[in-house]
Amino acid sequence: MGIQVIKQGIADSLQDSGRKGYQHLGINPGGVMDEVAFRVANMLVGNDEGEAVLELHMPAGSFLFEKEVLIALSGANFGATINRVSIPMNTPIIVGKNSLLEFKKGGKGAWCYLAVRDGFNVPRWLNSYSTNLKAGVGGFNGRTLVRQDDIPLFSPGISPSIAGIRDLVVLPWQADVQALYPPSDRIRILEGHEFSWLNEASGQLMESLPFSISNQSDRMGYRLKGPTLRTTETRQLVSTGVTRGTLQLLPSGCIIVLMADHQATGGYPRIAHVIHVDLPRIAQLSTHETVRFSRVERQEAEDLMLARDQYLQQLRGACELRLQKYFQENGTDRSEL
Amino acid sequence: MYTIYPVGERAISIQWGEGIDEATNDHILRLFQWLKEKNLPGITDLIPAYQSLTLVYDPVFIRKCSATPSAYTWLCRELEPVLDEEEELPPVPSRLVEIPLCYDPSLAPDLGALSRERGLSSETVVNLHSKSIYRVYMVGFLPGFAYMGKVDERIATPRKKEPVLNIPAGSVGIAGIQTGVYPVSSPGGWNIIGRTPMSMFDPRSSDPVLLRGGDRVKFIPISLDTYHGYTSH
Questions:
Q1: How many CB pairs below 8 Å do chains A and B form together?
Q2: What is the pTM assigned to this prediction?
Q3: CA distance B83 to chain A (A)
Q4: Helix, strand or coil for residue A128?
Q5: Same structural domain for residues A25 and A118?
Q6: Are residue A169 and residue A191 in the same domain, yes or no?
Q7: Which of A161, A239, A247, B28 has the greatest count of CB atoms below 10 A from its CB?
Q8: Between chains, do A29 and B144 touch, taking CB under 8 Å as contact?
Q9: What is the pLDDT of residues B153-198, one digit of tens each?
Q10: Angstrom distance (rounded) from CA B59 to CA B56
Q11: What ipTM is given for this predicted complex?
């Protein structure tokens, strides 16, 4: 008894913050594409940072809740409905037993996250719930979800019921995520070790012209369309470490931005790295959307990470207080959820 | 001598020279092992490669723990003593792993073309490939994919221009002076000269990956019948 997949989506999978500490074995970190939306969805339902969420891509699946549970959606807005009633993003919602969650249309953004209170009850592989699609392990049976999958939940269901005969109850608060996604087409980057390999014109083009997300983009990497960049170096690199957000220059002169399912090592020039706090914004871009890059300094990137973490901690605290108060007033003890 | 440089604001690489060199790689693996045991706060991954070691870290964690204004600077300072001192780092265990390998043409789609290209008979290619003991330099690309070398120059062949969409698990390939086993089915560009029935990657095991950096590998030629004998078990 948990969540049943009624209609299959194109790339829906269970993810968490990723599998850390195994890259030396060739096991990539994986994890959610948008870390901020993942954290916000979990905090809205009062979960620990580590709980798994369902990552959805458009066209997303439809899901039947087999018990009354507390959920939240964050990230891309796909026009979610419960029993055909629209529901808000970034808001805790109690869904009644046998309610159907559907997604009507792709709006802005590429990845939407569904968190359920207490998380999804699937085995962890190497300390993570993330689905490693390449190896076919982790998450739910090591793959994306298909029709009739029944994903167990840790939550025993809300008892006594709060929804009663209602399909859903929208709790009266919303997480403010605007500050976490500043409305700019500028993606900030740090110079990579091989940035100096670019010829002078290419180095300038990097920041002056827009790039668009090509349709050859997936959880491993986003290929960009834009000016062809040229290097003055012809040396071959020996495979060395890369990270999420690394901008690799392919031999064709195109850039690929490494995303969640990137390999641990790569042999292409690392011309730049998207700063950590801008990774959710680039992850949420859809095919054909454009970006411009601006170079910043490493210290600024670090400071921004710290500031964002503080904001998220405050948000977490506020969410916890509101939830606690709500359940006290509605006669349900936190421990019974 | 090494160079140390940032890889974004969450990783740092230390690099020794360029190219594929056993002594350098051995030093990297020793350092990797030492750092893994040392368990520095905030380090989430260590990625040893042919001539570099990359540390992935959480700057927020480091800055909170160490009250430092720059996680990068703090980390450089932590690393310098071990990088600069001629400290004796303990050696890395090096096991000799024998891997049965069937070079039958039915499991070796590129053996014919590679032999022709190098002007050798298939038997010579098989002999040259199976006589060497290879060193595992690094593991990457796929779970448990060991980059091994160096293959005999007479059979060293660049990877294919166009990757093949589906290379079956267990396939053994050559790319330049490297050889390796595909642990899971995957697209890939290495020249496939045989297949092993031995599992390189078992997700159900608590120790899911067979080969580690520093291991030594010897391929033992087996017949097609023996291969099928293994796989039917």
A1: 143
A2: 0.94
A3: 18
A4: strand
A5: yes
A6: no
A7: A247
A8: no
A9: 999 999 888 888 899 999 999 999 999 999 999 989 999 999 999 9
A10: 9
A11: 0.94
